[in-house]
Structure formats: structure tokens, C-alpha cells
Write a structure and sequence with these properties.
This protein has about 200 residues and is α+β, with helices and mostly antiparallel strands. The chain is about 30% helix and about 15% strand. It contains six helices and four strands, in the order ααβαβαβαβα. The protein binds flavin mononucleotide.
Amino acid sequence: MVNKIAKTDYPISGLIATRWSARAFSEKNVEKQKILSLLEAARWAPSSSNEQPWRFIVFTIEDKEELEEAHSVLSESNAYARKAPVLICGVAKKTYTHNDKDNRHYMHDLGAATAYMFLEAYNQGLAMHIMGGFDVEKARQLFEIPQGFEPTTMIAVGYYGAPEMLPEKIREKELGPRSRKAIGEWTYLGRWGKGMTH
Ligand SMILES: Cc1cc2nc3c(=O)[nH]c(=O)nc-3n(C[C@H](O)[C@H](O)[C@H](O)COP(=O)(O)O)c2cc1C
């Protein structure tokens, strides 16, 4: 497994520092218990009004036809994810259930649940990759997602594979360093644009 530990300026939990988005997946199947642990982690994410607007559609090799349908929605640039034995479609409910009003936090809360899932995947020794590049309307139709719900991400899950299996351009990304903006580029103190010295 490629080691891509974040070069942090300040100390953070090991799980956050070591998580990264792999593209090389082994064909080894993922145990159902582990998939359930990922969903359990997502379950405990915070959400506005505790609405829990996230929905996840899980595709496994137990049903090859459904898994192939899930592969078919991925954009070409995400073809690497077709090797993963598990795909998950992340969907968010756009309105609050208690009053039918718009929930402007729906994507935020799906994202929080997915982030929890990602950390648990890493904890379980699994690779995971979130993808926004997929055919949303095709997914809506194929997966029979009702109106009022937004298909937002496709998530690949599996064991780490060998980077050598990847096409050259993707392999470079797999082996390249992880980079981030400095905290000061997106943190202000008290007023927009007012720099925080650290
Ligand atoms: C909402 C979302 C959409 C993304 N879409 C794609 C995608 O379509 N294809 C892809 O290869 N990576 C995708 N990524 C992964 C990001 O490129 C990756 O998280 C980022 O480069 C940081 O790398 P790291 O997760 O290894 O730290 C997506 C991530 C998120 C959160």
C-alpha cells in the first residue's frame, strides 16, 4: 500500500493524516461486516435537525448485473473504479421530513456522513475513492432514485491494489504527493479577508 501521510503543520489524529483517495483497487471482495461498519460510521455523522438526509445505494459483486450498471454511470476519467468490488451511490434528500421545507444543508450532511465513512474505511484497512464524475441522470434512472433526492457521488470501496495496474497518468496521481492550501489561505479572523497569523 502506498504511504501518503499528510505533511501537517500542526498535530492531528493519525486516521485523518493517513487517509487518502486510492485509485488502484484489488479485486478481492470486501466482507459484508466491513461494509456495514462503513455505513455504521456514516450513521453517526451530525446533520441539520438530525434529519440524516443521506441515502446510500450499495452495489456489490453478489449481484454482478447491478454492479455493472453502477460501473456504467462512471465517467471515463473514473474508469479505474471499475476494478473496485463495491460501489456506493451517495444520495441526499433535499427537504426536511418534519415540514417538507427545503433543507439547504442536504449536501453538507451527505458530505459529513461520507467523510465519516471514509475514515472508517481507512480504519478497516480499506481503500475508498469519492467521485463526482458520473452521469447523474443515468444513475437516477438506473437506480430508480425518486424526485426530491439528489444522486451526488459514486464511491469506490475495496482493498488496495498494485499501482502498476493503472494507466500511466493515473499511476502518477496514485504515487504523487498529497497537497493542500495553507490554513491562512482559507481562514479569516473575525472579518472576511482579515488574516489569521499562526
Ligand atoms: C465530492 C468529491 C468529488 C470527487 N470527484 C472525483 C472524481 O470524479 N474523480 C476522481 O478521481 N477523484 C474525485 N475526488 C477525489 C479528490 O480528487 C481527492 O479527494 C482530492 O484530490 C484530495 O486527495 P486525497 O483525498 O487523497 O487527500 C472527489 C472528491 C470529492 C470529495
